[in-house]
Amino acid sequence: MNDHPAAPPQAARDYRGTVFLPDTPFPMRGDLPKREPQWLARWQQLGLWQRLRAQSAGRPHFVLHDGPPYANGPLHIGHALNKILKDVINRAAQMAGKDADYVPGWDCHGLPIEWEIEKTYAKKGKDKDSVPLLEFRAECRAYAADWLDRQREEFIRLGVAGDWAGRYATMDFSAESAIVGEIGKFLMNGSLYRGLRPVMWSPVEKTALAEAEIEYHDHVSPTLWARFRLHRAGAADLAGASVVIWTTTPWTIPGNRAVAYGPEIDYALVHVEAVAEGSHLLPGETLLVALPLLPQFAKDAGLGAHTVRRVLKGADLAGGLAAHPLRGQGYDFDVPLLAGDFVTTEAGTGFVHIAPSHGEDDFNLGRAHGLPVPETVADDGTFTIHAPGFTGLHVFKAHDAVYAACEAAGTLVAKGRLTHSYPHSWRSKKPVIFRATPQWFIAMDDERRIREKALAAIDATHFVPDIGRNRIGSMVAARPDWCISRQRAWGVPIAVFVSKQSGEPLRDPAVMQRIVAAFAEEGADAWYQPGAAARFLGPDRDPALYEQVTDIVDVWFESGSTHAFVLPEHKLPFPADLYLEGSDQHRGWFHSSLLESVGTNGVAPFKAVLTHGFVLDESGRKMSKSLGNVTAPQEVIKQYGADILRLWVMNSDTTEDLRIGPEILKQQAELYRRLRNTLRWLLGNLAGFEDGETVPYAELPELERWVLHRLTELDARVRKAVEDYDWTGVYPEIHNFCATDLSAFYFDIRKDALYCDAPDSPRRRASRTVLDALHRCLTAWLAPVLVFTAEEAWQARFPDEQGSIHLNEFPFVPEGWRDTALAEKWERIRGLRASATFSLEQARRAGKIGSSLQARVNLKLSGEDKSLLTPDAWAEVCIVSSFIIVDDPHAVERSKQPEAPAPSDVGWLSEGQDVGPLATVEVAPGAKCDRCWRVLPEVGASAAHPTLCRRCEAVVDHQAGAAA
């Protein structure tokens, strides 16, 4: 019997210090608005762009030619979308082994800048026309230069990498020289001509507009039905009848010179017997109206009882003559009836009044029949002296005067109003008109066959999305000759001389060469200097015999010709690999670039075209200051940082319209937080990792090899996106990999080994081997998007004053890591694990267990499922302390019942009607290990460490021995 008193109980030991917890300087909070400018300063100090170019020498080029934004005002969210998408594609191409030399540019000429300068004049009480032209142009240049510099800094703050020092601008002297040289090429090959034809004309801006400068809005137009009294017709019963026209532009009546009919249309000869009160129709008169439109006409014009005396084809009207509806008021000429294949019975009366000065169809029909093209409307939209009775009146205020004149002449049938889609200038937002003026055109269908070649080039181009091919193709197929002249001051002049004797442009290469050389040295202002005509024409020609053209070239021609000077000046190959802009540029920059290049080179300037949508608010509405729903990129950067904005772009389907707003940005910030936490966890668990710790692939456990297989799938996804420029879904897939495959599965399983195994344990080394691959791949794959965060995550592990993730290529992912059979096996394991997880959660809610490590799971398996994993491996995968495989011949069938919810939805496979769930949970036998928290029977067996399991005891003893 022992008479000694019992020893006092030993105090519980704290083992927390023996656990290998994550350790990293990479903080949980991004604090991006503060840190991002520091990274920008570091890259500037490193000369990162110059180093990229130097190390890329000899690589295959990748050229994304920048469509120039307009140097006017701060950047908006659409700019941010465009430049971020370009930057991601460029950076990804660079990291895929290309030389992605990106030259950003700006469009600097054009009307909006002119307007801004005119506003400053107005505030000072100055008239623009009183300011010397060269002085005005200098002010425009200074204004554009100021905004160019401001926008450049804003783009840089977005994290966009490029040759910002070597940027291009259409107002650079070298650019203006190249642009006039491109005009010269069309002049010399005969495609450039001056002609009279209707163009879209803005009375507010006093200039012709391109189709790309037009947008359509609802507009209320006055409408007019008017009589054209026949005084010559092919049949006796038509004598004295009136042809009735309908128009939504009553102001064009003074310009009328014909009436068009459809040769195959059935027309009714209508005898009026009664009219409604207030109608301008006269009982006893006879009218000609298209038979299908007669019922609607009767309603519109107040036609009562009437008789259709006969129906005739439009062709029967050939050779007919009518009186102008304003005869006796200065319009005393005959109006012929002409066949027009554009006449339909969709609306109106089936007759179209023809004003050759004010419509494409009108002009073409008039030209075919030798009709005059009167200049009835001046530059500012007022009537000229060629519109008797209306001179000085603005066309958009002329309808009442036209109604009154027709009523006085007895030709008014009816009047009304129509709300319809109508062309407006995208700058002034004011309605435009068709107006025939002398303009400079590039022929689409002469012997150079620009249209035909452009359509062939479209067929050979890769479009993302492919629907872009049809959009631009239909536009090119239907477009008229390209009007490239504008009647403004700030731009590159159409530097052409026209012979006053012949009216033909001078096509002299020596003259053009002198112009190009002068522009290169002095800029386009050289054209406006005193004595310019004599200087450029040379000593052998008399300037008095030539007209010096003062029109400037369409800014779309300018931007469309940027390939001609940007690529050669920067020693980049032609054609560019990619053009990337918003979907509206099918009729804008893509269109003009295609025509310009086909006209001068015979081929498209691009191999591929990528288009993105527009940015809307969270409700899908267009952004506007009046609605208060504008999201400014500057504010997003200030609150969240540029990486969040970049992540929003790449998490969106950019081929469609995108939405943004406060809630969407909060969602993106949460997605960013998950990605950042993934990087932080990797870094924390890679602390001290050295290459000697790496485990060969063949020795890795299946779980690690499954993770590496997933890397091969993502690597293939990224590299495919690099090749075909379709990034839709790539970064959501990477996020899902981080959140679902890693954080919620692999990391969760391997925490125990990483935190509690001995440093040299094969399992811990295998996991850190895979974590190393994950860190290298994820930082590289995220680098094109999260440019600042990826750099931070790289430097946190590989600190190097001269290093950068952006100097690296995408890591090599061996094809040998791909193991489809293994992936299928682990897909099945994860499905069965979901059943166990569901049962564990049910047990936790019922208070049966606390953490999953307090549990033992009994999983019913049958067939091949029984050999998927050992019980110990199942315990590891399910993060429980004990696991029992129960042989159940019905388990496979029940786990695959079609009515069972998918594991990814609820984590529950099936519960048979009478055999219970696949997984059941009970309390694990044994005691809890104070270090790893597993519940095991072996805990308590050690005298030295009675609260530890055998594994933890060995690790702690090893640590103690190493410390001693």
Describe the structure.
The protein contains 28 helices and 35 strands. The longest helix has 27 residues, at 730-756. 46% of the residues are buried. It has four domains: 19-55 and 631-810, Isoleucyl-tRNA Synthetase, Domain 1 (Orthogonal Bundle), CATH 1.10.730.20; 59-72 and 98-191 and 443-612, Rossmann fold (3-Layer(aba) Sandwich); 220-421, Isoleucyl-tRNA Synthetase, domain 2 (Alpha-Beta Complex); 822-925, hypothetical protein PF0899 fold (2-Layer Sandwich), CATH 3.30.2320. The strands form eleven sheets. Strands 8, 9, 10, 11, 12, 13, 14, 15, 16 and 17 form a ten-stranded mixed β-sheet that branches. A four-stranded parallel β-sheet has the order 2-25-26-19, sandwiched between helices. A hairpin with a 6-residue loop joins strand 34 (927-928) and strand 35. With 964 residues, the chain is an alpha/beta fold. It catalyses: tRNA(Ile) + L-isoleucine + ATP = L-isoleucyl-tRNA(Ile) + AMP + diphosphate. Belongs to the class-I aminoacyl-tRNA synthetase family. IleS type 1 subfamily.
